[in-house]
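Let us practice reading a record.
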Amino acid sequence: MIKNFERIKFFGELKRSGYKSFSVKEEMRNNLIDILQNKINPFQSIIGYDETVIPDLQTAILSRHNIILLGLRGQAKTKIARLMINLLDEYIPIIAGSELNDDPFDPLSKYGKDKIAELGDETIIEWVHKNNRYTEKLATPDVTIADLIGDVDPIKAATLKLQYSDERVIHFGLIPRSHRGIFVINELPDLQARIQVALFNILQEKDVQIRGFKIRIPLDVLFIFTANPEDYTNRGAIVTPLKDRIDSQILTHYPKTLEISKNITIQEAKITPVQKEQIYIPELIKNLIEQIAFEARISEFVDSKSGVSARLTISALENIVSYAERRLLINKESETTVRISDLIGVIPSITGKVELVYEGEQEGPVKVAHILIGKSIKTNFAAMFQNPDKLNRKTEKNPYQEILHWFSNGNTVDIFNNLSNENYKNTLLSVKGLKEFIQKTYSAENENDKLLLMEFVLHGLSEFSMLSKHHLEYGLKFGDMLSSMFTPSKEEDYESDEDPFFKQ
């Protein structure tokens, strides 16, 4: 890339500058070589693919390949495609007024060729930024060949008084207009088979033919396709000859660890500066949200072939912060901490983002959401505290005995959704043994985290069936497990999606 390019206005000046043009794939290859040698990461915002997808992607670019990114929903396929512009030169020169980004050294269109033939070194040059060399199209059943490749424009023919045999009557589609750039087709299987067939020549012979014209336009385009494997059976398929013409198929995947998943969520979630200032989000809350997605991906109620998008946890984190913010505003407080009971606020983020199998449909989406939240709590509780299921009743003292004994004496605890900070604290401190248990286990934590852990213990013990947990209209009630089995509960259960508790 030459410096002071903005000073170059004419083709003659460009030639004297020593500028040399490359094909888009050669250009990206050369830039990637420099990037790798200088240890620069052009995919910095892509987390969790450092040892898998990114090396495959770099290999494909060095090989000058067209690429298909194959993976389930929410695996950053489109994000990766959009970041590919980082491998393009900042600016490239084109013949001014060219609709096909004509290279002045090798014009493609009749317009470009005529300009060079007419003006020579006096041909005016324009500079195109890399952002304008990226084109993206979502494959839908209504996409036509004219949209992608082009068609004869009768209005242009009539306006310019041209014969239909004149090349100038052609209206070029998105792909020719992406000449010397990147063209992305998202959800490729949704493209009709006859439209996919029209791409054969472009990928293999690198040219297009429009209508009855005998012209061949040797396009210079890097193609990137994205697809979901499930689409092959649900909505469509990639025709075999087209798959054969795509040089590199790269498989994406979900985050392999909770920490990677958490980093993605934190990066992508849109939390306002005011929310960050007023609302404390403990690490435990972040872990619980990520674990919900991990539990969903292995749940017998969720269709694993459909996948569970990373957008679930992103949306869930945004929702739980807003749920806490709503409580803060209602109580006219200046700050608050996200609570375990605030997880009720992430249910809308779960129900709209998981595809249920038959058993899940029978349970209902809200019930499944509660099951996933419960499993997340149970998994994290067992990792942080002594697992109640693994206690040896004969040789080990039950560390939860004092807490359980307090409840067995007929005491209960109500944690309402909109409890003020002070009432929340007093409610938890009223449980005998709860504060002391946390003090022994997590003495170094700050007060907000200790209160959260105290509430977490109640939820965890209820998931291990050591305490009962009932959903009230405006919150939760914890009590003794044994007495609750013999006492009919007047509180609402959450068996039905019509429960008023979920309408909050």
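A brief commentary: The longest strand covers residues 221-227.
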